[in-house]
Design goal:
The protein is mainly alpha-helical. The protein folds into two domains: 90 residues, no CATH class; 67 residues, Arc Repressor Mutant, subunit A (Orthogonal Bundle), CATH 1.10.10.60. The model has no long low-confidence stretch (mean pLDDT 77).
Length: 167
Amino acid sequence: MIFPQTEIYYYPDPEDPWEYVWIEFKGDEAERLVAMTELEPDKPAVAACQADLKPYFPVVPGADARLFEKMRTEAQLRMLLSYYVEFYPRESHFIDYVRLAKEYIMINYWKATLTVSDIVNAVSLERSYLFRLFKEAAGMSVSGYLTAYRIERARELLQHETIAAQA
């Protein structure tokens, strides 16, 4: 993995050769996916993976590739990263999901239509997985946290004399 603004030097080892493949991906989604692995700028590589990942390293289409080729490459990259998340997970990645869910709640709690499904979609996780992570990290369910946050914010607002309660 080569991170932005990072120089990498590769010196082949004849006794322990390895292959590398260049795949460019960028953006917030890429950063979020890589953050779930133990890949970091000071540790840009991992040992051989337990799964055979060679099928996910096809010839990557160039800049003139058609849309469907780019979509397939992105899907293969996501599959590849799923193996890195499985075999080389960042130990604290669940905290990031819980933090993202809490931030989403803090920004959107006032919306009467806000649901747990909205929160799950915002952090791009399966519902049951987020529930388990949230319960482990926060000690309560996502819906319980949303309700408690709304009550706390309402209490704070009611303490200010200049704000009148509306029915």
